[in-house]
Amino acid sequence: MKELTLRHHNRDSAAQIRDLLLDIHDECYADSTDEFDQRERFAWFVDHWSSSPGFSCVIGYEGEQAVGYAYGAAAPESREWWRGTKYQPHNGHRATYHLSELMVRPKWRKTGAAQSIHEALFAERPEHLAALLVDTEHPKVQALYEGWGYRKVGEDRPFADAPLFAVMVRELYRERAQSA
C-alpha cells in the first residue's frame, strides 16, 4: 500500500463528505441483508453524528481514491458510553470522544489503513478518553481494538433493534502524558 493522505473534516465540511461516507458504507455492507446495515438507516447516523458540535472525521486516501474513514464526536458530559459500567476513569479524566465509525473498503483491509486513519483521528483531539461500541458477535473486531489499546468495560444495547455491543475504552491522556 502506498502512503495514505489523511484529510481532516469537522461539522463545517460534513455536507461535502456525506455522500462519500455513505458510498464507502454501501461498499463495505454490500452483502448484508440486515436492516441495521442499510444505507437509509446509516444515513441517519451520519447526519446525527455530523451535526454534533464536536464532530470530527478523518478520510484516508491512496492517490485520489478514498480507502476509508473514521468519525465520531465529543461525548456530552454524563452521557458517555462507559457510564453504567464498572469503569471509572483515573484522576477524574472524564472528557470522552465517542468513535462512532471506522470503515475501510475491502481492498484496503489488513494493510494498516484502518489503524492509520484511527490514530490520525485522535492525534488532534483534546479528550482524555476514547470510547467505542463493538458488536459482541464480532470478536475479531474487538480483538483488533484491544490490540490498539482499548479494553472492554461492559456491554450495552443502546436502542431496541441494536445488537448487543461491547463497550470499549482507551485512555488517551495516559498516552499523551507518557509521550510528553
UniProtKB/TrEMBL annotation:
This is Putative acetyltransferase. It comes from the Bacteria. The keyword Transferase applies. It holds the Pfam family Acetyltransf_1. Keywords: Transferase. Residues 15-173 form the N-acetyltransferase domain. Coiled coil: none annotated. Signal peptide: none annotated. InterPro entries: Acyl_CoA_acyltransferase, GNAT_dom. GO terms for molecular function: acyltransferase activity, transferring groups other than amino-acyl groups. It comes from Streptantibioticus cattleyicolor (strain ATCC 35852 / DSM 46488 / JCM 4925 / NBRC 14057 / NRRL 8057) (Streptomyces cattleya).
